[in-house]
Amino acid sequence: MLALPIFLDSLVTAWGAILISVTLILLFGEIIPQSVCSRYGLAIGATVAPFVQVLVWICFPVAYPISKLLDFLLGHGHVALFRRAELKTLVNLHGNEAGKGGELTHDETTIIAGALELSEKTAKDAMTPISETFAIDINAKLDRELMSLILEKGHSRVPVYYEHPTNIIGLVLVKNLLTVHPEDEVPVKSVTIRRIPRVQDTLPLYDILNEFQKGHSHMAVVVRQCNKTDQPPSSNSSRSPLPEVKVDIDGEKYPQENALRRKRSLKKWKSFPTSNDSFKSGSRSRKWSKGTDSDILHLNGSPLPQLPEEEEAVGIITMEDVIEELLQEEIFDETDHHYDDS
């Protein structure tokens, strides 16, 4: 390429040699290779890889000492890694909405950007404030009015509180209320109440998602540390986690229903395949083999659990809240009232 003007100078005039050489170099050395490789760069690179490997070995005796000398003088080069903001910008450039020929759709770029931002968001960014949460009292009765209110809200899980709405002690699955008749006015404490985990408001959403994936609960109470300086620190019980309260609700009130539930759970367990192939994933096999009785809140005449004095419940977070932050869009179900901007 560099000797082309000298060669053409003997054939044509000086300005003609410069014009022809510059045009040929620009056309065949810049424009055409970049146009072809921008679309088929990987295929071309894979095709000429053996030839390039041969050139590497041929140039190795000269290139290796020079590279070591440059590393000694200028320092070792670092691999170019992108930061989160740079990755989000790179993803947006590959979206088809950017007009640069990218193949990623709007939904794909939004989800990728949401996954990159999820580690920076905490529970307080996605939770529902406790003042806007629908919860029921454990001492309430499931009469027709309360059952109608639960159906009107349309939630699959309803938090249960004790004494005051900020003291959330568990949750009730609405599907467990299908066999409850409003005329019987069954107390809430007589139905199955599941334990509800507590998470700090500063906990990242990825950690909350990992907790939800364990299968114990898809709802958690968001608590915040309160610095109370007016009261001296008491015994170690104030800093210790809530005690495990053993209360057998089902066996106390409805022994027949409890026995029927055990039979159904046994049938459900037998319906799962028992071959070795079905238990290749260790985490899921451990989850199914573990009993669910530990997730049930048992009441045995013992005092109900309460939040420690240094903690304050500020909201409720669910699996749907975390998924909405990942999708960066609201998820509307059949019972949500969605009003269009128009």
CATH names the topology of the largest domain as: CBS-domain
Number of helices: 11
Secondary-structure element pattern, one letter each: HHHHHEEEHEEEEHEHHHEH
CATH class of the largest domain reads Alpha Beta
Largest sheet: 4 strands, mixed
Shape summary: elongated
Task: Note the beta-strand portion.
Answer: 5-15%
Show unreliable segments.
Answer: 229-291
Number of domains: 3
Task: Please report the total strand number as a whole number.
Answer: 9
For the record, give the distance between the C-alpha atoms at the N and C termini, rounded to a whole number.
64 Å
- What gyration radius follows from the Cα positions, in whole Å? 33 Å
How are the strands of the biggest sheet laid out side by side?
1-9-8-7
- Proper CATH architecture of the largest domain: Roll
Helix content: 40-55%
Mean pLDDT: 75
Please tag this protein with its features.
single chain, 342 residues, alpha/beta, CBS-domain, four-stranded mixed sheet, three-stranded mixed sheet, 11 helices, elongated
Describe this entry's structure for a reader.
With 342 residues, the chain is of the alpha/beta class. The protein has three domains: 4-74, no CATH class; 79-120, no CATH class; 128-231 and 242-272 and 285-327, CBS-domain, CATH 3.10.580. It has helices at residues 4-9, 14-74, 84-93, 106-117, 123-126, 144-153, 205-213, 249-253, 255-270, 282-289, 319-327; strands at 128-129, 136-137, 141-142, 157-162, 164-173, 186-187, 198-200, 219-225, 311-318. The chain has a four-stranded mixed β-sheet. Helix 3 (84-93) packs antiparallel against helix 4. The radius of gyration is 33 Å and the shape is elongated. The relative contact order is 0.11. It is a multi-pass membrane protein. It comes from Gossypium raimondii.
